[in-house]
Structures are given as structure tokens and as C-alpha cells.
Amino acid sequence: MKSKIQTKSINTATMKTKNQFLFIMLIGFLLVSVDSYAQDEWVVPDKYEKMTNPTDPSEDLDIGKDLYKKHCQSCHGKEGYGDGTKADDVEGDLGDFSSAEFQSQSDGALFYKSYIGRNDMPNYEKKIPDEEDVWLIVNYIRTLAE
Ligand code: HEC
Questions:
Q1: Are the C-beta atoms of residues 110 and 141 closer than 8 Å to each other?
Q2: In this structure, which residue's CA is closest to atom 26 in ligand 1?
Q3: C-alpha of residue 28 to centroid of ligand 1, in Å
Q4: What is the pTM of this model?
Q5: What is the rounded end-to-end Cα distance, in angstroms, of the chain?
Q6: Atom of ligand 1 nearest to the CA of 96
Q7: pLDDT, tens digit (0-9, with 9 covering 90-100), for 87-121
Q8: How many angstroms separate the CA atoms of 109 and 37, rounded?
Q9: How much distance in Å is there from the Cα of 4 to the middle of ligand 1?
Q10: Ligand 1 pocket check for 69: Cβ under 6 Å
């Protein structure tokens, strides 16, 4: 008799531990999800967000177009839909340059993302040494709005 009661209380104890374990797992899972959501958001530093475009967006669009074709099209696609030939090989949201949501970003934000990059979005500080060229690309990307 005595031993039966003991077994029962051990079982209850095991159940409690199991529930605690499941609870901790659940919390852990939630934390990881929140974390990866936060990582998705690409925060643009204030310095860039407030930058003013030093170029005249109506000039040298052909240069911007050529640079875009050379450096960006392979991933972002001709129209900026994110459907370039290399798009399937990279991770991350390429965005849709023709969308209102994308175009609602400031010139400075587009400059920052295009120039500095992150993860599979390359850094262009060495490949496009003249910052003005990056602005010309930003101006060209503006013309992809639909
Ligand atoms: C090798 C493929 C690749 C090339 C080449 C590339 N990109 Fe990207 N780009 C990416 C990826 C991947 C992301 C998403 C990055 C992320 O969110 O982590 C991205 C994101 C971006 C974004 C942000 C999109 C948004 O929705 O806000 C901009 C702007 C951008 N790229 C501009 C450019 C420009 C300009 C060039 C050329 C100078 C270029 N990219 C070349 C892969 C590429």
C-alpha cells in the first residue's frame, strides 16, 4: 500500500517536470520567433535616413541604368521585381522595387541598403568606389516605380 502511494506521487512529480519542460520549450520557441522577426527588419541608421541626395534625379539616368544592369540586375531583375537569374541562390527578401511600399523609403535608406548591404545583399563600397554612382543607381531605381 505504502509503495503504491509513493509511485503515484513520483508520477505526479514527473508530470510536473514534463509540463515545466514543455513550458520552457514554448517560451524558448517564442523568443526565437520574435528574434528572427526583429532581424528581418532592416534598420537604417539615422545618419543615412536623413541624408539628402546630392544629385539631380533627372540627370545621368542612363549611367544609373548601366550601373544597375552591371551590378544589381542579376539578383533584383530587369524591372526590380526580385526575379534576377541569381535570385534563387540568395537568402533574404529582395523586395519589389516597383511597389509603393518599397518606394516609400527615403533616398538615404535606399542609398544605405544599396551601398552597405547586409548578409546576401553585397557591400558595394569597394566595387562602386564613387558614392555619386550609388546615388545615380538610387535615382534609376526610382524610375522602376509602377
Ligand atoms: C547577389 C545578389 C544581389 C545583388 C547582386 C544585389 N542585391 Fe540587393 N539585395 C539582395 C538581397 C538578398 C537582399 C535582401 C537582404 C536582406 O534583407 O537581408 C537585397 C536587398 C536590397 C535592397 C533592400 C530591399 C528592400 O525591400 O528594402 C536594396 C535597396 C537593394 N538590395 C539594392 C541593390 C542595389 C542597388 C544593387 C546593385 C548595386 C544590389 N542590390 C545588388 C541581393 C542582391
A1: yes
A2: 95
A3: 31
A4: 0.81
A5: 80
A6: 26
A7: 999 999 999 999 999 999 999 999 999 999 999 99
A8: 20
A9: 66
A10: no
Residues of the chain with pLDDT under 50: none
C-alpha cell at 77: 531583375
Q: Whose CA is nearest to atom 41 of ligand 1?
A: 72
- What is the topology classification, in CATH, of domain 46-142? Cytochrome Bc1 Complex; Chain D, domain 2 (1.10.760)
The cell for 122 is: 553585397
Q: Which amino acid is at 58?
A: S
Residue 24 has a pLDDT of 76
- Verify whether ligand 1 is closer than 6 Å to residue 139 (CB atom): no
121 alpha carbon – ligand 1 mean position (Å): 5
Residue 65 Cα to chain centre, angstroms: 23
Q: Are 104 and 49 within 8 A, CB to CB?
A: no
Listed by start position, the domains of the chain span 1-41, 46-142
Number of Cβ within a 10 Å radius of residue 25: 10
- CB burial of residue 5 (10 Å; 0-12, 13-18, 19+): exposed
